[in-house]
Amino acid sequence: MSSDCIIRNYRPDDFEILVQLKNESISLAADGRYLSPQAVRDILERPNYIPEQDLFIAEISGTVVGYLDITNEARIGRAVLECLVLPEHRQQGIARRLYYQAVPRMKALGAQVAHVNMCEDNTLARLVLEKMGFTSVRRFNEFSVNLDIISESKMSTIFPIRPLQAGEETTLAKLQNLTYAGSWGYNPNTAEDIGYAISTAGNAPEGVCLALDKDRPAGYFWMRIEHDEQGKRRGRVSMLGVDPDYRGRGIGRELLLAGLSYLKSKKLSVAQLTVDSENLVAESLYRSIGFKKIDSSLWYEKLLD
Ligand SMILES: CC(C)(COP(=O)(O)OP(=O)(O)OC[C@H]1O[C@@H](n2cnc3c(N)ncnc32)[C@H](O)[C@@H]1OP(=O)(O)O)[C@@H](O)C(=O)NCCC(=O)NCCS
């Protein structure tokens, strides 16, 4: 146990080191990508989040050596954790100390369980989690497609598809919450969450489109642009949802193809997405279009007793 290590709350002057640590952390994830300083700022400024209370820093002799970040998803009773300890400071109990220091805050936020997502290949981190009493509860798969195989946009044949317009955040929040209701780990969004997410790096109103049955939204896609670890731009299918009343009619396929064609029009060559391994309908849709599985991650859970 590292006795000279202190655990404290985040301070704004930690920002630069936090960008480095978050990138180190995300490079170990199944959807490994690069987070620009602006992308980290977007994370720190998101609604319902106070970095000075929800982000914990491990420090030894004035040097930051690790962090633990809580995403509050109290609407479904969980706190999602992201934790990293620099390699030369591992196996000294720092992750454990970060976790136990964060537990009162998780409880104060209304969480009953803590969840952590871990790349399936990261055997060492998985062992640490298991020793701390976390158990694996769900597998998520990472899929990728080469956009060369996607044809340029053609007219939608079922319902017209058009970009989300200013002022439609509540409409999208309702549609998203309806289409994802019951999806494992889905925390319902508010119009404020949606409006904020669209304004963050890599997102744009034209990357979010509704399929409309006259005035009624039947489904939507949400595409964004991110950077891989080499800094190369790539697309991400962030969300794809069809109102349960409209499923099985080809709308999901049409929306996905329109979204991928949008990404292709932005001169991207690859698109990725993450999907619950138990979501067989979505997986079958993605495979039928040419997506291939490239990685997988596990969700770990621990009850906060
Ligand atoms: C996934 C989802 C968007 C599909 O929408 P949809 O409009 O019903 O899909 P489509 O009618 O276009 O079907 C497209 C393909 O999906 C698969 N599919 C659709 N319904 C299916 C079912 N009941 N069982 C198995 N596969 C099914 C098939 O591969 C189908 O192609 P096919 O008709 O040529 O066999 C929709 O189920 C949904 O909104 N689910 C909840 C949100 C979600 O899970 N989103 C994806 C998260 S990554």
Characterise the protein shown here.
It is globular, with a radius of gyration of 20 Å. It is built from nine helices and twelve strands. By secondary structure, the protein is an alpha+beta fold. 31% of the residues lie in helices and 32% in strands. The chain folds into two domains: 129 residues, 3-Layer(aba) Sandwich (Aminopeptidase); 154 residues, Gcn5-related N-acetyltransferase (GNAT) (Aminopeptidase). Helix 6 crosses helix 7. The structure holds coenzyme A. The site of coenzyme A has 21 residues, from strand 10, helix 8, strand 11 and helix 9. The site of coenzyme A (COA) has 21 residues, from strand 10, helix 8, strand 11 and helix 9.
- Percentage of residues in strands: 25-35%
Structural class: alpha+beta
Name the shape in a single word: globular
Catalogue the unreliable spans: none
Bound ligands, each once: coenzyme A
Short description, anyone?
With 305 residues, the protein is an alpha+beta fold. Helices cover 31% and strands 32% of the residues. Strands 1-2-3-4-5-12-6-11-10-9-8-7 form a 12-stranded mixed beta sheet, with helices on both faces.
Main attributes?
single chain; 305 residues; alpha+beta; Aminopeptidase; 2 domains; twelve-stranded mixed sheet; 12 strands; 32% strand; binds coenzyme A
